[in-house]
Fold:
Amino acid sequence: MGALGKPIILMVAMYMFLKFVLPNIPGSAPLPSSLIALYLLLTGSGIVIFETLSKESKDAFWSPIQRFLTGEKMGGLQALRYGVLIFFPLLVGWQTYGSTAVSDMPPTESRTIHPAPPGEYTGLSNPVPKTPENIMQGKGFYAAYCSPCHGGNFDGKGPAARGFIPAPANFADPTTIAMLQESYLFWRIKKGGVGLPIEGAPWKSAMPRWEVELPDEWIWKIIMGEYDGAHQSPRTWE
Amino acid sequence: MKPANQIMKQVLRYGAVVTVAMMIGGASLGYAQESVSVRATLITGGLPLEDPNAAVWSSAPPAMFPMSPQVHWQNRIQEVTVKDVIVRALHDGNQMAVLLEYADPTQDPDDAAALEFMVGDKKAHFAHGQPMLQVEGGPVNIWFWKNKTDKAVDMSAKGFGTLKPQEHQDVKAKGVYANGTWKIVFSRNLSTAHAEEDVQITPGEFISIAFAVWDGRKDGSGDLVEKGSQKAISSWWYFRADAPPDYSGYMYAAIAAALALGFQFVLIRKLKKGQ
Structure:
């Protein structure tokens, strides 16, 4: 391996790691290609700095690149060199076209799924005693008012759900009610989609504002029934 | 140490792999979102303003959107006939036509359908532009067709109970039923003189659109099942009228490629001269 071999292996390994390994680490997610490009750029810059620390390493690093560009002592690789010299401007042109062409994509939308609740809806505890009767009553209210969208199985797949974007929350999913406090659910059920702050994109939510139809006590019972039915527990700070 | 030739071969091989992988990664993102918008294709020649069966509709790509029963506010409905709508659109730079299509086993006198648009830059709730806690909401522009009159009513709303026909009626509609399918064409000029209440359609710009359908079937006692707020509805989706073709991207690409070529030329010359 020459002075160029290691950097190339390092760059490829870095790319493979960012693209294929990192997204599979639990709790991680696929990286956007722009972030991968940024990391590769940083890796590349680091390599260039490292390789040019001493005169010897600098020469060993640059001389094969220079020989390739100038075409000295190329032998059979001359055709490849011309290929690269033609390919590079075409690539630049293609990239430029891609970045200036009018996009067919609709505007991207960012929506905060669990925006911060107003102060008066933080830290409330459920005033309804957690008895089997109350849980059962809560499940009854849930079946009547919530299950058309959130589903009889608490999975967000009710018969009325299909047309709604964002989709009704799946309570069995550990990233929904399991990471929220009862007080948060009370706010969401009471005020509905239209009660969301701007970052929650309230104009898209089909969640009704139940405060106009249901007494608070019923809402607290529904919350109890939801946690029980979805086999989840509310988040607590203890 | 390996000869320079072999090293350069490796550089090119790995470089090509990385480049191709990035192209594939980037390109696949482009297809993921296409079904979220209606694309009004630009055509020359007459728009089929009154003809839902015109052959030219095949030149507009169909977009399919799922429907839900209206459960957001009272009076709700738990089940509706229409599960999906298929939407196509055409425009000629002055006028636009939208073809709304849905499956319905029966041809009832009371079928009705509507398109809803956000007006201007304001965000409006899909349920008649009702007020939200932090967003004023509305207005929305609703184009309502009913089979009984086979006409469109151009309406505005800023929340429940505020829906009313506009003074200026700019929209036309024509519906036909055949083979278990309703097809309704809505048409209007792209822009109108009343920007505060009418949606203005600028080719190339995305606007928000939603759909509603009332199947005119009756229950055992002869009452309409779907009426008023009891209807099939959709969420907000996007609508865009195609902009006229723009070739400036090719020019920019050619300039960039020429600059890159020039850069290579200068660099190699300098290297050959010895730094």
Summary: The radius of gyration of chain B is 26 Å. Confidence is low (pLDDT under 50) at residues 22-34 of chain B. Residues 249-275 of chain B form one domain. The longest helix of chain B spans residues 4-29.
